[in-house]
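User: Okay, second chain of the day. Same drill as before: sequence in, structure tokens out.
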Amino acid sequence: MFQVSTTGTPANQTADIVFYANAGGNVPGAAVCTKNGETAVVTAGSTTTNLSGGGCVLTAGTYWVGVQVDQNFGTFGQHFWSNRTTQSNAGSVWRNPGNGFNTGCTNFGRQTTCGVGGGASPDFLFRLEGLDDPACTITCPANQVAWTSGTSAVVNYPAPTADASCGTVTCTPPSGSSFAVGTTTVTCSTTAGPTCSFDVIVRRLTLAQSGMINDPLLCIGPGDKSNLTFTLTNTSSVSASFVGTAALTNVVVVAGSASASAPGTALTTPNSVTWSGTLAAGASVTVSYMVQFSDTAPPQSIASVVLTATANGQPVQGNNTISAILNCQGVGPGGIIPATSEASDQKAGSVLVYNIYTSSTDPTRQNTRINITNIHPTRPAFVHLFFVAEGCAVADSYICLTGNQTASFLASDLDPGTTGYLVAVAVNPIGCPTSFNYLVGDEYVKFNSGHAANLGAIAFSQLAGGIEMCDQNSVTATLRFDGISYNRTPAVLALDNVGSRADGNDTLLILNRIGGNLGIGAASLGSLFGIFYDDAENALSFSVTGGCQFRSVLNNNFPRITPRFETFVPAGRTGWLRIYNQTGAIGMTGAAINFNANAASSAGAFNQGHNLHHLTLNNQMSYIIPVFPPSC
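Assistant: Same drill. Structure tokens below.
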């Protein structure tokens, strides 16, 4: 509370209260606390003001106090301090900044020479009421530790704790400053005088990466692989626990490929590699892993790996980034069909399955023309062909295609007198299966019986991030159709429409077992279970046993149902079937070809064929293939 004795017309007004430091010559200097517009209770003989906001906190010293009552001169006249003739300390001062009274005292001067209207006595009468605060106490925070991968770190440290009597607290360097690697002392001072200090310690963990393909002269595209590394080096003088994480965009980790040069734990997800462990002062760790560029990354997109780290649980400031541009020319406008879309005769892949090939002693009547095309604009394709006979014996050959090349050959030229199915596998120059989801194919097949069709090859994509299958020391490689390395295989197949034999239809069903060793013998179908439905939704079950390939026309002998097929599907009626292994433990593909001798004369008679529909999938199938370099 502040109270001064006054003379003047009383009114309830506001007052401006200012405390000044003592300047040379014992006059007011700089203002140290200002309270404008404080409520002033003005009565005859005194003005009382309670300072708001906790008042003014002043450290020990000598001060001046100034009071100016905000009142209208024309209405309430002048305001004067009551004074006395006895002087204590320096004499009172007065100023008239605008010189409205023509005194010339625009700066503070002694009341005895600059006073106006209120008398020339040297002292003013006033009273201050406040608290004598205890001595200022300030406590700094504990030493602060930060980590950086560069040469400095921005550190936001907690403010020191200080008593109200300390006044303003100022720390140098301030919180939020950039601190160089090493130790920097922060000093915090108060207007009351006491200080404290603490250290900001910045330690360094260097982050480095290497291995990303980034050559503008090379064609880089989906499925390509690259061996990457990242290195963490503790350049500080203390041991610490670290976690380094490489986050991948448009590139995925090859499963099981990560290893580390120092003890710790290396973990991978499709889009990240993480190492955690302890590094002593000056120690480092290098993590090696393989990546594949994403199957769905469009041309000219950027693949990047961003390396970040933590030290003792707190972030290490900064990161390290490597990147590459997928500069291979695309196959055309529009979005890429995802490699993860399941096996189909409507997409490109790295493995093609042709459901039937055949030739006979008279290839003019029974033969197959196999067609295969590399749809990549620039890259060559090395394709390992495996001819799987119905009795499971396998013969192989190579065919090589330049970019945008298509090729055709007759079964009678390569594997005469044999019937079975064909598997085409994209490999690299040393014969290892590779990601080359740019193969498409189809076939024209004809039999002595009159059955003929154009069937698309079933394409299986290799998936980015699958397990690496072989290297230059391998003699075999395993193609896993598990939804991780390659698309899954069909488990339940359906033939969606079967015409009646009484209408001249002769439907040939073809089933192929996917799996086994294509070097010494493919796997067989074994026992299969099926359900045959007529067009009135009546159902009958059947079973059949097959080798690597099963072929049969639908008649009274197959499927063995009661009543027999020709009774169950009479003239003018149709049916359909589904077939599978009852355990769901095998993968299959298949096709159906219909021959009707009346096709040229009957409006309802048709020839041709199609691949069977895939109803469910199996993720347990695999092929083992021999590995040796292409001969073309």
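The chain has five domains: 2-128, 138-203, 211-325, 351-475, 489-624.

User: Thanks, on to the next one.
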